[in-house]
Amino acid sequence: MHQELKALALTCTLKPSPAPSSSDLIVSQVLGELRGHGVGGESVRVVDFDVRPGVETDMGDGDQWPAIRAQVLEADLLLLSTPTWLGHPSSIAQRVLERLDAELSETDDAGRPSMYGKVAAVAVVGNEDGAHKIVADCFQALDDIGFTIPAQGCTYWNSEAMKPKDYNDLDEIPEAVAATNKALAANAVHLARVLKHDPYPPTK
């Protein structure tokens, strides 16, 4: 019998709630696919919180990252969702990665980095091409931090260049995106279950 898994999506839109968000929409779709594999999850819209700049687990003075970090620590699977701005991840996504950088200095009781044994996936939306570059940058950072990246662990949607259109405004999920969401969920859940059943050995 599979051990219960928990997913957490960090949605890095620049739009505070309750504004409609394409990044949030694609998160809801991926979380729906994960539920089909028996994995529960929730989404945090990071811009709604006072996440201070820095590379520590707690920057003090009202910093709200520690509460989000606690959810990351409880999760088996992290989904990072970002819009495309000027060909790059959003500033919110960059801040999340910078705050997660602190985990390089954090270890569990067995001496393993705190994010070892957790799976990370990425979702990107935007109006210009560049999703692969954003995914590559995010994957490299998440891998450095200690997350494990699944096969085909990303999903994305880009509108045609020079013809702005939001993913949020589409009438239905494009077939290619739906198939990619499905593959991401299946591969991420499989890997997370493998890691939960056979965790990384102690490093000390």
A few lines on this structure:
By secondary structure, the chain is an alpha/beta fold. The protein has 5 helices and 6 strands; from the N terminus they run βαβαββαβαβα.
Walk me through the structure.
Helices cover 35% and strands 18% of the residues. By secondary structure, the chain is of the alpha/beta class. Strands 1, 2, 3, 4, 5 and 6 form a 6-stranded mixed beta sheet that branches. Helix 1 packs across helix 5.
Characterize the biggest β-sheet: 6 strands, mixed
Give helix % range. Answer: 25-40%
Strand pairing plus helix content: what structural class?
Answer: alpha/beta
Order of helices and strands: EHEHEEHEHEH
Sequence stretches where pLDDT stays below 50 over 5 or more residues = none
**Overall pLDDT metric:** 94
Total count of strands: 6
Count every helix, treating DSSP H or I runs of 4 or more residues as helices.
5
* Radius of gyration, taken over Cα atoms and rounded to an integer in Å: 16 Å
Morphology call: globular
How large is the share of residues in beta strands? 15-25%
Alpha-carbon distance between the two ends:
31 Å
Give structural attributes.
204 residues; six-stranded mixed beta sheet; 5 helices; 18% strand
Secondary-structure blueprint of this entry?
Elements: E1 6-11, H1 22-35, E2 40-45, H2 65-74, E3 77-85, E4 88-89, H3 91-100, E5 119-126, H4 131-145, E6 154-158, H5 175-197
Parallel strand pairs: 1-2, 1-3, 3-5, 5-6
Antiparallel strand pairs: 3-4
Helix pairs in contact: 1-5
